[in-house]
Specification:
Length: about 625
């Protein structure tokens, strides 16, 4: 490169010399004999014969160029020009290198941009060499180098927002994404209408396909990118407030952001449409989703280290009439529940359920609505099994919690591996216990029952409101009654309710009989029924004025004994099945909710909101 620069400089000096010693004298000779503007000197660099060999005014026939243009007497101008051209040449070569190494661009795109960057930059270098004035030459050179580079940067950032280029990319390396100071983030968010409270924690995005510590955005300092700042601040705010979900929705001229805390949605604010779309693209790129397809539904996930704690983010995208919607579930894959007691399961149910988990075969179902904590309860149950003497394999989409000592398989539908295919392969692994993340279709239900019949204990989750509805849904999947009666062992239905904040809860003041007659019928009068204070006047710091702190589970366990299985086989009425369940000690979700109300743990309004009357 240095040799190339020296060659161009020598070529430029040679052309300038030819101009000064050959072309310019001929131009002077062709002028009328006036001699104005020419300096007479006995130290002339070249001589120009006048008409007839002599000047009309008797002046000497030797003419000299002004010695101020002599480079030997003004060497500093040559050094300045050399430095300007060297800097421009380095920037030009760096821009070509960035274009050639852009992995997210295909070969045609890289070739097209190189065909634009190379000739324009080369023309700028040659033009700067041949121009005698240093400053105009430098400005022209920077223009021919930086203007096409800026166009390339805009094209690259639109196609690949996870690696944001800028002017700094000509000097520094890749970007390492960490959170900025709270004051800087808050100032930017106030400007863009997001009502967040960043805690200033350190955030690093990790490539989900490689579980090493390599951040997706490389190394370096945070860049002043609005979209990146929003992603960092949103994750900072939601994780510090223990949110379970993030919802991003396109609303015509803006993008709306919401979070789900303790089962309830609350607004985070709105962003301008362009910035909001960039935030959506960053989340999709992190999850390895196609950012160009905004209509087809897609699912993915990524990992992030937040204050040295690795969290998983499960992303689902779906096109809408006005744009696109993203739902992001926040999971702690390394979270460790000591036992089911931590989730709020009472001792009587835990004792019954522990006996069901000791079965060597059969089907155990966790049922509930979306977000009811089915997978969390299932993983807590798996942790309580004998991991040394039982071969346990899970099939999940995606893996929500990492359980040491258990072989976990993640379903990849885009690679052609479905629940059905994964379950068929697991049957050949001599597993004692098989956990299925969710029974979604007829094929998965049939294979699960087949595995339960052939000697494996199958634990699975399924969407259903209660135990009896779970039996009906399996029958709708085409499971024959005698097969279901032979395989079913237990059904655990559950819901999640918000716990009252112990620091600010108040006694229930309304008329209980008028508002909740279903509760007054069972109330003993010895309970401590409480409710949350008015949210508009609540200044409790323990719950941030919400009146609730975290959630607890409400559980309904149905153990399928021999008599109940016989009722299922004979297609007995639902009332007989429920009566038999009660004989086995089953308490409904509503009854368990009433127990929590009487204990002052939850409010009547919360149980009514979740379970109805």
């Amino acid at each position: 490169m240095s040799a190339l620069l020296i060659f161009f400089l020598l070529l430029g000096d040679g052309l300038q010399y030819q101009f000064a010693h050959n072309i310019f004298p001929q131009l002077i000779a062709s002028l009328p004999d006036q001699g104005s503007g020419i300096v007479s000197s006995s130290h002339a660099l070249f001589e120009i014969p006048s008409r007839n060999g002599f000047a009309n005014d008797g002046t000497p026939t030797s003419y000299a160029i002004d010695p101020r243009n002599d480079l030997s007497q003004n060497w500093q101008f040559g050094a300045l020009k050399f430095g300007i051209i060297l800097v421009g040449l380095l920037l030009w070569l760096r821009s070509i290198g960035l274009c050639s190494s852009a992995r997210t661009l295909d070969d045609e795109e890289r070739s097209a941009w190189n065909n634009r960057l190379v000739p324009l930059g080369l023309f700028g270098v040659l033009l700067a060499i041949f121009l005698p004035a240093e400053i105009p030459a430098g400005l022209l050179l920077l223009g021919f180098v930086l203007v096409p580079y800026r166009q390339f940067v805009r094209f690259h950032n639109q196609k690949n927002p996870r690696i944001v280029m800028g002017w700094w990319s000509l000097i520094s390396g890749p970007v390492k994404v960490t959170s900025e100071t709270s004051s800087v983030i808050r100032a930017r968010l106030d400007e863009l209408q997001l009502d967040l409270k960043p805690s200033g924690c350190d955030i690093q995005f990790v490539n989900a396909s490689r579980l090493g510590a390599d951040p997706i955005f490389g190394s370096g300092e945070v860049r002043k990118s609005n979209a990146l700042q929003q992603v960092i601040a949103i994750m900072d705010h939601t994780t510090s407030n223990h949110a379970s979900d993030i919802h991003i929705t396109t609303r015509g001229d803006c993008v709306e952001f919401r979070q789900r805390i303790d089962g309830r949605l609350s607004s985070l604010g709105k962003l301008p449409l362009n910035t909001g779309k960039s935030v959506i693209n960053i989340f999709k790129v992190l999850s390895d989703l196609n950012i160009s397809d905004r209509q087809r539904s897609d699912d993915g996930s990524f990992l992030a280290d937040i204050d040295n704690k690795r969290l998983a983010f499960r992303v689902s995208s779906q096109g809408t009439q006005l744009g696109e919607k993203l739902s992001i579930r926040i999971l702690d894959p390394l979270e460790n529940f000591p036992n089911l007691e931590t989730l709020g399961m009472p001792a009587s149910i835990r004792q019954q359920f522990a006996g069901c988990l000791e079965e060597s075969n059969g089907l155990i179902l966790f049922v509930g609505a979306t977000g009811a904590g089915k997978s969390t309860s299932a993983c807590a149950s798996l942790r309580g099994l004998d991991l040394e003497n039982r071969n346990i394999v899970t099939i999940e989409d995606p893996i929500e919690y990492q359980i040491p000592g258990i072989d976990q398989i993640e379903v990849n539908t885009r690679a052609g591996q479905s629940f059905e295919a994964a379950l068929r392969s697991v049957l050949r692994l001599d597993a004692d216990v098989i956990f299925i993340g969710e029974i979604r279709d007829r094929d998965t239900a049939h294979i699960a029952c087949q595995a339960a019949l052939t000697g494996q204990l199958v634990i699975a989750t399924m969407h259903s409101s209660d135990s009896l509805s779970a039996i009906s849904r399996l029958l709708e999947f085409g499971i024959e009654r005698h097969v279901l009666a032979s395989t079913i062992r237990a059904i655990l239905a559950q819901s999640l309710v918000r716990k009252l904040c112990p620091s600010c809860k108040i006694a229930y003041e309304d008329n209980l009989n008028a508002t909740f007659p279903w509760l007054s019928e069972l109330a003993t009068g010895n309970g401590r029924i409480s409710q949350s204070p008015d949210a508009t006047k609540n200044e409790c710091k323990a719950c941030d004025g919400r009146g609730f702190v975290r959630r607890t589970g409400i559980f309904e366990l149905t153990v399928a004994g021999s008599k109940m299985r016989e009722l299922i086989r004979e297609n007995a009425p639902a009332s007989q099945v429920i009566a038999e369940s009660r004989c086995g000690g089953m308490r409904t979700l509503l009854e368990e909710g009433q127990r929590l109300i009487l204990d002052g743990i939850v409010s009547p309004h919360e149980v009514h909101r979740v379970l109805g009357s």
